[in-house]
Design goal:
heterodimer, A: about 500 residues, mainly alpha, 20 helices, globular, B: about 525 residues, two-stranded antiparallel ribbon, about 75% helix, about 5% strand
Chain lengths: ~500, ~525
């Protein structure tokens, strides 16, 4: 009793927490407005959610201008440049997803207000993830971002496939959490602390301890589920196909990025000395993920499934720099951050086109894209840009992302890194083969049912397209824009 | 040379004007067909005028130095800069590229191939043009890579949308081959970035091609050079294309629309050979010396294989495509000798092949348009039914087989001759064997070209077309073709027009290779 009363609130840096608090406030506000005005408030919800995200960006800007590194809760929560870059990325991706959702959610007669609340909550988890430097705060952030996502995946509650999507995602997610928690308990047992820096000191020094290796591997595998790395990817295609398309985009981009962010912090802050475990693990996982994701994508006929497997493969590309985490740490972090930033825009853009086309064709089959160039040249050109970016063809943005991978690998040097570089090169070619299938339909084929009416694209989708196209092209022509953020992230992540 | 005022802009203008034209066209609605064609032609012609200005202002006394150099920041984080510049090696190729595009636009003015859509067709040609022009003036590896890749998608769509029956297969094959090459190429570029050292052993960490040319691979051990060269070899060799990576070419050429084939033959293939001369050899002299015998081997295999392939073809366009494989074999043989003489011949061969084969593809396209077939056995009597076109075909065939007095001769003959005495300590016996094989190749070339001409132009028109009226060369065709014909004669009679421009650069490259070879 005495101890409880003696409890004093740890010092809070309100400025540092402002983005999170703003998100929380808007999430709550949406719920309150919903309770008071009920149906009459529906139309305002997406706007409110969008404003919430943009408002959260403001304190990130002021924090970035301020530039000082802020540490709270005994090092468990750190606001540095690395975290700010990623928070901004999450919020902007979230904003694009909201733009994509407006008409889809309204027309589909789904719950609207709850949708946006959950979206904001999940984003809150992601924003927290980029600051977490402690096993406990990582875990809390992970669950906070995952649990709303499970529900969102099942949002088309009438559809069996959507229910299957949500359930599968939930079960696999919980399983991954369990594995990860077990790993965390082992690591905690050895290190005697949950703080990353303490873990780095305890596990980094000294001879190989099988328990430590097991603990590290279990934690990494838990996140491998999250980023749908092969062989832990099996949930992704079914979940992606069944979930509402904006949610799929959200999972494929934001949720995957969150997993990557956690991996960066674990690998570079918590296990920096353990390249004996980390590098071979990621070499294998990255090579497998790229290759198998691409090979299965070749055989898909549904565009969302194709993008799902392409997303798996892209995740594999993102994992490549981890394989040289110790040999070229700065380049590796830079490569992953740059890849995530470019990937977010090009992939969200591709999903936006899918949404727009589905408004007319009501189909997700690749064949339904036949002759798109004839009746919707704008969408066809936009999709071409996004696919070229995903394939890594200049001047669309993706080439710089791939370039970053090669740069990290060659900076590390050595036969293993060069070998992985060749695997990346081969996979780039395989990937183009299936992106080309969509191009072939859009450009070379005629319209399957002869229906050449143009597609009416709602304003919010146009806005989403504009943001993603501009970003994708700008990153391709002036890669310095995104490169700068990559560089900034490195300094603080390695310095922290 | 200090670059000032307008001159700092000229290269960028020549590169990006077509792209500006393309962007303007995108904003013009489809129905204003004449207007958009005019914008397309206008932008490419202005770019050509800028090119002519460059050619006039160019200091031919210092053709070995880069001129009109612009060096501005671009991607600071990776130390890559926007560096463009032009020397005697780039100038002829840039001009070739600037000339070919407006002529192609004029040629397609009234016959956009099926399924029509001039807007998209012209936009793609202009984007292609920017990529090609940029590749020839870029002096930063990353900038070069970006331009090199920009040409891929437009060509893919040109083949895939406006191509023949098998266009989907051909376009994808073209794309995947080239993409694989460029992925390995970028790895090699990065390896050069990380490993290159200057004379004092400092790591350079630069993509600046001027610096890397000066460094000449110092500090990269030979075995590493061989590996890096292998990556570059894949990137450029697929583009050339060299045997055994040539298989995409006959398909792409046969299926591509006429102007697609013309641009592919006239300019795109040269990106590969240009890469060897500009990047692979000067950056990695030791790698080049180690690879030269193998390049020479593949080159002569390409010469013979291409010629035999030609003899077996039943389709006129496919035959011309295979002849490209053979001709590019001569170019690569010239490069492989690593001599001043051979590389000059190779550069001449690039220009000559661009003009001649471009011309042949034009004629093939026009024949196809009139007869709706290119099957050699169904054609015949072209000299009777369309005499002018028949004579032009004959002229281009003669030029292609290397008749002295026409441009083709100066590409082939010196290349063969240079193999007699290869540079940089390469085995003389080996290259003399190559020389003999290549000489046999010229005989075969005469065989397949004359045979083609006999079957298509001589005699009476086949029964199938006996009664048909076949239109002779029309106005658009004359405008598009005349510069090609003039060029073939002009460079044939006066080869020094090109040799004098290229020699300074080439002798600089070979001198540094020789120095490295002498040091070993």
């Amino acid at each position: 009793m005495e101890a409880l009363l003696a409890f004093s609130r740890p010092a809070l840096d309100w400025h540092a927490l402002a983005p999170e608090l703003t998100l929380l406030a808007f999430g709550t506000l949406i719920t309150v407005v919903d309770i008071i005005w009920d149906d009459r408030s529906k139309r305002a919800m997406p706007t409110l959610a969008g404003i919430g995200l943009l408002a959260s960006l403001l304190p990130i800007l002021t924090l970035a201008v301020d530039g000082s590194e802020r540490t709270m809760f005994g090092g468990a929560y750190v606001v540095d440049d690395f975290s700010l870059v990623l928070k901004a990325l999450f919020l902007i991706s979230g904003y694009v997803v909201i733009l994509m959702s407006v008409d889809y959610i309204r027309d589909g007669d789904y719950y609207e207000n709850e949708y946006y609340t959950l979206m904001l909550t999940s984003l809150l988890g992601m924003v927290m993830m980029s600051s977490s430097r402690d096993l406990i705060s990582v875990f809390v952030a992970l669950e906070l971002l995952s649990i709303p996502a499970y529900m969102l995946a099942a949002w088309r509650k009438g559809g069996a496939r959507s229910n299957e999507a949500g359930l599968k995602y939930y079960l696999m997610g919980v399983f991954a959490s369990a594995v990860m928690l077990y790993g965390m308990s082992l690591v905690y047992g050895l290190a005697g602390s949950t703080a990353f820096e303490a873990i780095a000191q305890e596990l980094g020094s000294g001879e190989s301890n099988p328990v430590a290796i097991l603990g590290i591997l279990f934690i990494l595998i838990g996140f491998a589920f999250k980023v749908s790395a092969v062989p832990f990817h099996t949930w992704a295609p079914d979940t992606y196909e069944g979930a509402p398309t904006p949610v799929t985009a959200f999972l494929a981009v934001a949720s995957k990025t969150a997993g990557m962010v956690a991996l960066i912090q674990l690998v570079f802050v918590a296990f920096p000395g353990r390249d004996d475990v980390v590098q071979p693990f990621f070499w294998l996982i990255a090579a497998l993920t790229m290759t198998i994701g691409n090979l299965i994508a070749l055989r898909q006929n549904n565009i969302v499934r194709l993008l799902a497997y392409s997303g798996v493969a892209q995740g594999g590309f993102m994992l490549v720099p981890f394989a040289v985490a110790a040999d070229a740490p700065a380049r590796a972090i830079e490569a992953v951050v740059i890849y995530m930033a470019i990937y977010a825009f090009m992939n969200l853009g591709a999903f936006t086109v899918v949404l727009a086309v589905a408004r007319k064709t009501r189909s997700g089959e690749i064949d339904s894209y036949g002759g798109l160039f004839q009746y919707a040249p704008g969408l066809a050109v936009a999709m071409t840009i996004f696919l070229a970016a995903l394939a890594g063809i200049p001047p669309a943005g993706g080439w710089f992302a791939k370039f970053g991978l090669f740069r990290a690998l060659l900076d590390a040097g050595g036969g293993w890194a060069a070998g992985l570089g060749v695997v990346v090169a081969v996979n780039t070619v395989i990937a183009f083969a299936y992106y080309a299938r969509i191009l072939v339909q859009m450009w070379f084929q005629s319209v399957p049912d002869g229906d050449e009416r143009p597609i009416a694209i709602p304003g919010s989708l146009k806005a989403a397209l504009a943001v993603t196209i501009i970003a994708t092209m700008a990153f391709g022509v002036l890669p310095g824009l995104v490169g700068h953020f990559g560089e900034v992230s490195v300094l603080s992540a390695l310095g922290g | 040379m200090e670059v000032t005022g307008f001159d700092t802009w000229v290269l960028s203008l020549a590169v990006f004007l077509p792209l500006v034209g393309a962007l303007v066209i995108m904003l013009i609605p489809k129905v204003y067909e004449t207007e958009l064609k005019l914008v397309a032609l206008g932008s490419s012609l202005v770019a050509l005028v800028v090119g002519i200005y460059i050619a006039i202002q160019f200091d031919y006394g210092a053709a070995g130095d880069l001129q009109f150099v612009v060096d501005k920041g671009w991607i600071d984080v990776i130390n890559s800069r926007y560096i463009v510049g032009l020397d005697g090696l780039s100038l002829p190729l840039l001009l070739l590229s600037l000339v070919v595009v407006p002529l192609c636009l004029i040629y397609s003015w009234n016959h956009i191939p099926d399924p029509g859509n001039p807007k998209a067709f012209f936009v793609l040609l202009l984007i292609l043009s920017t990529g090609m022009n940029g590749s020839f003036v870029a002096q930063d590896m990353i900038l070069f890579f970006v331009f090199f890749e920009i040409v891929l998608l437009p060509m893919y769509f040109l083949i895939g949308v406006w191509g023949g029956e098998d266009r989907r297969y051909a376009s994808l094959k073209f794309f995947l081959y080239t993409l694989f090459g460029s992925a390995l190429m970028i790895i090699s570029f990065l390896a050069l970035f990380f490993l290159s050292k200057d004379a004092s052993g400092e790591l350079l960490q630069t993509f600046d091609m001027r610096v890397l040319t000066d460094a000449a691979g110092v500090g990269i051990i030979k075995s590493t050079q061989v590996w890096i060269f292998a990556g570059l070899f894949m990137g450029f060799g697929i583009k050339v294309p060299m045997f055994p990576f040539h298989t995409w070419l006959p398909d792409a050429h046969t299926q591509a629309p006429t102007v697609g084939s013309v641009i592919l033959a006239a300019v795109l293939l040269k990106l590969g050979t240009y890469g060897f001369v500009r990047i692979a050899i000067p950056f990695l002299p030791e790698g080049a010396i180690a690879w030269a015998p193998w390049i020479g081997l593949l080159a002569v295999i390409g010469i013979i294989y291409g010629a035999l392939g030609c003899l077996a073809q039943k389709d006129m366009k496919r035959l011309i495509a295979f002849s490209s494989v053979a001709h590019m074999g001569f170019v690569m043989l010239g490069i492989a000798t690593l001599t001043d003489f051979g590389i000059n011949a190779a550069v001449f061969g690039m220009i000559a092949h661009g003009l001649i084969t471009g011309m042949l593809f034009f004629v093939a396209g026009s024949v196809k348009e009139r007869y709706h077939t290119l099957e050699i056995s169904r054609l015949g009597g072209l000299l009777k039914s369309a005499p002018r076109m028949g004579w032009i075909l004959g002229f281009a065939s003669m030029a292609s087989l290397g008749l002295p007095g026409l441009a083709g001769f100066w590409g082939e003959f010196p290349a063969i001759l240079s193999a007699y005495n290869p540079g940089a300590g390469l085995s003389e016996e080996l290259f003399r064997v190559y020389m003999v094989i290549a000489a046999i190749g010229t005989v075969l070339a005469a065989g397949y070209l004359l045979w083609l001409y006999q079957r298509t132009a001589f005699g009476e028109p086949t029964e199938e077309f006996a009664g048909h009226e076949i239109a002779d060369v029309n106005r658009d065709e004359w405008i598009a073709w005349t510069p090609f014909l003039i060029g073939i004669v002009l460079f044939g009679v006066w080869p020094n027009l090109i040799f004098n421009v290229t020699d300074d650069v080439v002798s600089g490259i070979t001198a540094s290779v020789e120095a490295i070879a002498a040091g070993n």
